[in-house]
Amino acid sequence: MNKKVAFKTLGCRLNQYETDCLVSEFYHAGYQVVDFRDKADVYIINTCTVTNQSDKKSRNLIHQATRNNDSTIIIVTGCMVDNYKDRLDQIPGNLYYVDNIRKSSVLELVETHFRGEVRNPDLLNPGAFSFTPADTTFHTRSLIKIQDGCDHYCTYCIVPFVRGKAVSRPVQDIITNVHQVIEFGFREIVLTGVNIGRYYAEGTTFEDLVEKILDLPGDFRMRISSIEPEGFGDKLISLFNHPKLMPHLHLCLQSGSESILLKMRRMYSLPDFVNIIDRVKKNYPDFNFTTDIIVGFPGESDEDFNMTCKIVKEIGFSHIHTFKYSRRTGTRADRMPDQIPERIKNERSEIIRRISVENKRAFRRSLVGKEQIVLVEKVRGKTGWGYGELYVPVEFRHPEAKENMLRRVKLTGLGEGDDPVLLGKDEG
User: Residue 68 pLDDT > 70, yes or no?
Assistant: First the structure.
């Protein structure tokens, strides 16, 4: 019988991309991919360490996998391994720890283990861009890794320490990857990395790369994953005129206070950020902006926090991913005075969450009566569910709904709850 493998991924889309590639490799090697809650021969946990909560979730998953079966192989990889490897080694069980740069060699490690050989994970072949393009994944969209690492060293961020210096993937490798996933049948690709706006390889900037991909033949559309505001040029804004580039950006703000942005060592001012929003909205009024906000950064006063509340209301982000500031050993912010009590972080997080819910409902309500081309991701009976161009969830009836189909849908109403789905009528 085929051996069974289960995956669990925490954190960013870059982690999701890398897990998808591993899923595809294991599938083609003859493994049966099962749910993480099921009994498996191999459990692979792709961890995150961006916050204390991420660490806690990662550790819980490791212990959960350890309890499932004493003979089970558990592979722990991702950023938590790079950050805490010595401490993770203290957890009992049949575990291997694989750092980020060797993550693409996980299948080789597992196969070696099953042959009864001993292999030190630290001696696996390194390679940030050594992943095989995935045709069997957990997602309808195909993630494309274009970059890894970061050189910015924001004062709160552990990522440069665990992902390393910024490196960009060769242009032709990316183009080949895109060609392959289109041939696999994917209708939508998403460019991802740690700091994708700083992509630069062989004289090609991020904007140049986007243009090259948009000019490729094929029936596909493209999204840009989370991006930083600095270096955001007119060329990228103009590229949103292209029908293949979807009008949505997750543009990271982090704080609405100039003094906090300076303490965070962010590379832009609040007027710079707002100027980007205004320039984009001028050309594309329905453009969907989402963002990240950190609450409770050291020294954040009530006035600082109120500035953040004011600007996120004014901009109207349709979703706000809220992080409570989490101390990361080795970062500058960890050594800063005036650390904010957890109680205040919780209160501020809840306030931003409520603003996000209000913004989300208002934005989605404004789309009722308009049309979206929806990529179907789930099917329940004769009901299709997926995302439109603006990255809004849409549900509609279709007699032959299938995953990965694109349908033009007229939006007719809005569902209930904090994350309401847009209801629609299939227009063909």
Answer: no
Q: How confident is the model at residue 136 (pLDDT cuts 50, 70, 90)?
A: confident
pLDDT on residue 92: 65
- CATH class of the domain whose range is 4-123: alpha beta
Which residue spans of the chain are classified as CATH 2.40.50? 371-426
Q: Which residues contact 422 (CB under 8 A, 6 or more apart)?
A: 364, 367, 368, 372, 388, 392, 393, 394, 395, 411, 413, 414, 415
Q: Assign domain 142-366 to its CATH superfamily.
A: tm_1862 like domain (3.80.30.20)
pLDDT at 90: 67
List pLDDT tens digits, range 25-37.
Answer: 999 999 999 999 9
Residue 231 clears pLDDT 90, i.e. is over it? no
Higher-confidence residue: 413 or 230? 413
Full-model pTM = 0.94
> Which part of the chain has CATH 3.40.50.12160?
4-123
Which one of 1.20.930, 3.30.750, 3.90.550, 2.40.50 gives the CATH number of domain 371-426? Answer: 2.40.50
Distance between CA atoms of residues 48 and 54, nearest Å:
6
Mean pLDDT, range 354-359, rounded to an integer? 98
pLDDT digits (tens, 9 = 90+) for 106-118: 999 999 999 888 7
Stretch(es) of the chain classified as CATH 3.80.30.20: 142-366
